[in-house]
């Protein structure tokens, strides 16, 4: 037995040595190409790759096959390029879990392999790659169809309002899922598609309601929309602690793919995606409507903050790593945070948003008595999630997630907006702007100055520069409403508002009595409110929400 253990130790040391030497050769080649792009340097790098491949064949990775095939193409070593490509396209799970054939079907392949395009073998190889892709697409579609499959139950058609209310609360058409991980396609419009990756709890049960956490990635200006996503890309790397604590706490994790035009930060064209994806997921998965959250890093953290500012109704809370707390598509109306919460995990060496700005922002939050917390980690750069020292931040996030519930029936709401598409929160809905109206005296702008910023110089050293900028842009006139209710009575103050609606729930008012609505001190409504089944069904179709069920609405024109 002792000899067996010695043998095992010897074998593992050989493997470790082999991988180490393989990596050294590959790194040596990559370092050479990083500095030099002449033919002689490429041939030296190519030789290093081939030496590594020949000496340590069990260590060859898909990424290295891709790299050596590109170098071979550039050197016009067609036979070798095709030999490596033939191996690469057959790999089912290559770099980051993506299939190997994607290396020749993507847009960059035409440039990377331009010296091979006139070779008859290119057409033959592309034919094989497309056949592999077609098979892959069929499997992907079948998995998606299985994901969305539900019981063939009777639709919600009751004409009795009270009965319909109870039916919506009890709605459960769900079936068990065959897999834990799915890549789901998502149509942005008739011609553009993206995807989201969803990771279910290991022992997902259709009888249990589960929390949901969306993670929004950063670098939206430099990302392309992904037709499909992989477990390796979504659950590993910088996202490893989402996976670790999501699995421990049985939280459904959703990873959307955004791009330059369609995303959650720089463009309204893609801002609809997260609520729309949530609606689709609720069709297939038993979600706890009161425990849906958004987190993100960098541009994704700014996206999380933007949903807090513009469209917070479906969500219970928001989190951001290395956040720039600002809306990039319009005004940042900071008092909107009073309806929800935000936790910011910042670092002191962050070029994206400096500590002095975070200090000013936190001071503003404290002044408002907002549900806001900042946890700062000193000595770390913008890419904080890369470091193992970030793990305690995820523990804080998931502890908050476990304890927090959405509160859709708050007795007080405040909402400011400059775009009718985002005119409302919870029961204060369909607010419409009147930018020709006089701004109310109490309607004040909140902002602060940022005087210092961090940036990297040419030597990649972080330095402090002097700036003079506002924290928030205010490109358009805004409207605002402050509302409260008690004992069947709603009192709402408005500024630059043309009209609004009040959504009604039995959890808010006594339906046996009249409901009174005062707008700017004037009585505008004094009647009973009853169930409206058509409205209820339409609202459920739009939201798939079984916890916040609006039975009717009161439409008010501000005079």
From TrEMBL:
Record keyword Transmembrane helix present:
no
Mind listing the UniProt keywords for this protein, alphabetically? Hydrolase, Signal
MF GO annotations: hydrolase activity
Q: Which Gene3D superfamilies match?
A: alpha/beta hydrolase
Matching InterPro entries: AB_hydrolase_fold (IPR029058), Esterase-like (IPR000801), Plant_Biomass_Hydrol_Est (IPR050955)
Looking up SUPFAM superfamilies in the UniProt record yields: alpha/beta-Hydrolases
Q: Which PANTHER family match?
A: FERULOYL ESTERASE (PTHR43037:SF5), UNNAMED PRODUCT-RELATED (PTHR43037)
- This chain belongs to the protein called Esterase
